Every structure is written in C-alpha cells, then in structure tokens.
UniProtKB/TrEMBL annotation:
PROSITE patterns assigned to the protein according to its UniProt record, in alphabetical order: COF_1 (PS01228), COF_2 (PS01229)
GO cellular component annotations of the record: cytosol
One Pfam family it belongs to: Hydrolase_3
GO molecular function terms noted in the UniProt entry: magnesium ion binding; phosphatase activity
InterPro entries: Cof, HAD-like_sf, HAD-SF_hydro_IIB, HAD_sf
Name of the molecule in the record: Cof subfamily of IIB subfamily of haloacid dehalogenase superfamily/HAD-superfamily hydrolase, subfamily IIB
Species of the source: Clostridium gasigenes
Length: 277
C-alpha cells in the first residue's frame, strides 16, 4: 500500500456547498480506513465543529484544526499539538483591525469571541441548532476585545478577519499586520475577502508533517486534498497533492492532480484513483 495518510480539508473539499458530506465520500473514507489508511480532517474550523463532521463520516481520526494550530485525537480529544497566539501580538493585531474598521473572530478549541454580535446565519450558529451539546460552539461578545484576549490567554489559536465588503481596508490591514508581526505569525486566506492569523509554524502543511512523523509515515506516503490558499502548504508538503476541481488557480498550479469538484465527490474520486486501483 503506497499511501498511508490522507489529510482532507473540509469546506470546499470534503463538504459540498450545502455543508454536507456525500455518501460517496463517506464510503471512500470508510473503505480507506478499513484498509489501514489513516484519515485526518484538516481544517481552518474550530475543533467542536470538525469533530461533529468527523462523527458523520464515522471514522475515528486525528483532527487538525485552526489551520494547523491544533492537532487532537478524535476519540478522546487528547491534545497532540497546540500552538496558541501570544496575547501581546493579538492585542497589536486587534488595534490594526480597529484602525481599518474590520471585524474579527478570535477562536479557541470550542469558543468564538468577538466585539460584535455574530448573525444567526453564521455557519456555526446554524449548526448549533441541530447538533448535540458536546459539538456546540460557544459564542461570547466583549465590548473591549482585549478583555476577551485576556480571558482566553494561552488558548487562542486563530483570528479570522472577514468576510468584509471593505476590500481596501482588508488588504491594507493584512499588509500592515504582515509588516508589523510577520516574523511571528502565519497569515493565509480561505476566501477572496478574508484572512486568518495563526502563530508562526501553524500551518496545515506543518501539521500534516507533524502527524505523519508521529505515525511513522514518510511524506511520500501522504495525500493532501484541498481547495484554498490555506491548503497550499499541505499540498506542497504531500507526496501527492490533490486540488479540488473548484480549487483556486494557485492551488491547481501546485497540485500533482486535480480531482472533481466538492459537489461531485472529488475526495472520493481521488481516493478511488490512488488508493483502490
């Protein structure tokens, strides 16, 4: 068996546009697991949300969240790796974001806190209405965001900025944060009008590398599948980097193979081609 670990992004990859996992994807993942291949959900999402979808797929697999800032076992939630952002850097980032009138979400393993009320249409709030309590995401609002940063010191894994119509402010804020704190942070996008801030060395590629090493697997035995900029590092790391048919052009240009779209079970098609043939 050539491939022993498959790291799979969620949004735009494992999930279709209705935020569902297709039957074909579920069947392929279960069959791969039965063959002894390790599966790792690898997402920018919060752990509680990723764990819920891991349960839907029906596999007991490691979960990489916050774009690589955290790796946990799915079953017991045991922490394999955790890389929170220092509070002083977060406060500095928050000041820059305020300067450009941008909204930001700060996330821990099970909580999102902001300085504004998140709308009920937010994907986590929609999911909260249908999932058991253990998979619900906590939402908190602080008048002064620094109070939230202080409360969750040492636990904040990611700062998400966007989606925002203020594109000039968005670009300028990202540039200023990169110039000011770029030596300490890893900044990527998962869409055209957002960016995500993590601690240095927190990336999906580094997380895949750490997990492979823990499992005694070489990079040549790893498949990584994704669709956005935040998946680029793991596509570049993998022995086989797979871009979704709906992936951004940059990712497609770096991938070894382009599969079907997320609405056409592209994950299943790639696994069938390279693991079941």
């Amino acid at each position: 068996m050539k491939y022993k670990l498959i790291c799979i992004d969620m949004d735009g990859t494992l999930l279709n546009t209705d935020n569902q996992v297709s039957d074909d994807n579920i069947k392929a993942l279960k069959k791969a697991t039965e063959m002894g291949i390790h599966i790792a959900i690898t997402t920018g999402r919060i752990y509680a949300s990723a764990k819920y979808y891991s349960g839907i797929v029906g596999i007991d697999a490691p979960i990489i969240t916050a774009n690589g800032a955290s790796i946990k076992d799915s079953g017991d939630g045991n922490v394999i790796y955790n890389n929170p952002i220092p509070s002083d850097i977060l406060i500095g980032c928050a000041e820059i974001l305020k300067k450009y009138n941008l909204k930001a979400n700060f996330t821990t393993g099970d909580t999102i806190f902001t300085s504004y009320e998140i709308p009920e249409t937010h994907s986590y709030k929609v999911t909260n209405k249908i999932v058991p309590n253990e998979f619900k995401v906590n939402f908190l609002v602080f008048d002064n965001i620094n109070d939230g940063i202080s409360k969750f010191e040492g636990k904040i894994l990611k700062c998400f900025v966007g989606e925002d119509s203020n594109l000039d402010g968005f670009r300028n804020a990202r540039a200023e944060i990169t110039k000011t704190f770029g030596d300490f942070l890893h900044i990527v996008s998962s869409g055209v009008n957002n960016f995500e801030i993590m601690q240095k060395d927190s990336s999906k590629g580094n997380a895949a590398k750490r997990l492979a090493k823990r499992l005694g697997i070489t990079k040549d035995e790893v498949i990584c599948i994704g669709d956005s900029e935040n998946d680029l590092s793991m596509i570049q790391f993998a022995g086989l980097g797979v871009a979704m048919g709906n992936a951004m052009d940059l990712l497609k240009s770096e991938a070894d193979f382009i599969t079907e779209t997320n609405n056409n079970s592209g994950v299943a098609r790639a696994i069938e081609k390279f693991c079941f043939a």
